[in-house]
Amino acid sequence: MAPTAGIESENPYEETTEVPGAAARVPRHAHSRSYLMCPPTYFDVVYAINDWMRPEEPVDRDRAMSQWSALADTYRRLGHEVLTIDPVEGLPDMVFVTDSGLVVDGVALGARYRSAERRAEAEHVFRWFSDNGLIRPTLPRYVNEGEGDFLVVGDVILAGTGFRSDPRSHAEASAHLGRPVITLNLVNPRYYHLNTALGVLDDSTIAYLPAAFSPDSRALLEQMYPDAVIAAETDTDWLGLNLVSDGANVVLPVQASHLADQLSARGYEPVPVDYSEFLKSGGGIKCSTLELRGFRRLRIAEDQG
């Protein structure tokens, strides 16, 4: 399905997506974004730190690179900026760069991985933050797996815990980034990061899988987002909620067709891509995409002196 929604730059203008029926009454506004990505040059599955990983199953690295390149090209075609960090040999999961930090209003918080296998990734991404002018880059004291467990919805940060990020990292992130952080408890190890069970569609709308959360967290999500899109496991089996949205265009796995239909009915424009090779490591589209919120404004301010 070809993307049709307009893009809003940081010097705003607006175009809206129109769809037939009731959903056409809900305008969706696209905003241009800056994304950090890491090529899967050394992508492999050589250990198992989540329920998806099968080291005995071989990885087709050429196919992975082709799918990754198609994802990056999709972002550029939608009007977004794609920056890259160099991959490092011996770090096969570095392609999943979103787990290595969180950037809000140009302020950068690094990551601290729970597993020793991924620990060095955070150091390389933190160095990229420092070298590229992000504000107050800081490494956390507590385990914090970046946008794997921290998702920005408007002025609020939803934060997952239960399998990876330490709940104490939530207050730490709030203090550093100056945003309220809402704790959500994950209960199904298949959805080990928040971004496998919840996707952000715009500043006030999410999609999520209720079964991935504790009863208290489900009740909180129902209260905060009564109009949320409720996903089915037939889509989350393909990491359908591990999506990236600019507010109108939603990049998601091509296999998540039911979720795509739900999004279309709400006035969003699904942009399906095949990212299936990365499922062998339990990673998806959002895993490979770290949003650099405010990065473009920092460069404009720097250029203006």
Automatic annotation (TrEMBL):
<dbReference type="InterPro" id="IPR033199">
    <property type="entry name" value="DDAH-like"/>
</dbReference>
<dbReference type="GO" id="GO:0000052">
    <property type="term" value="P:citrulline metabolic process"/>
</dbReference>
<feature type="active site" description="Nucleophile">
    <location>
        <position position="287"/>
    </location>
</feature>
<keyword id="KW-0378">Hydrolase</keyword>
<dbReference type="GO" id="GO:0006525">
    <property type="term" value="P:arginine metabolic process"/>
</dbReference>
<dbReference type="GO" id="GO:0045429">
    <property type="term" value="P:positive regulation of nitric oxide biosynthetic process"/>
</dbReference>
<dbReference type="GO" id="GO:0016597">
    <property type="term" value="F:amino acid binding"/>
</dbReference>
<feature type="active site" description="Proton donor">
    <location>
        <position position="193"/>
    </location>
</feature>
<dbReference type="GO" id="GO:0016403">
    <property type="term" value="F:dimethylargininase activity"/>
</dbReference>
<protein>
    <submittedName>
        <fullName>N-dimethylarginine dimethylaminohydrolase</fullName>
    </submittedName>
</protein>
<feature type="region of interest" description="Disordered">
    <location>
        <begin position="1"/>
        <end position="25"/>
    </location>
</feature>
<comment type="similarity">
    <text>Belongs to the DDAH family.</text>
</comment>
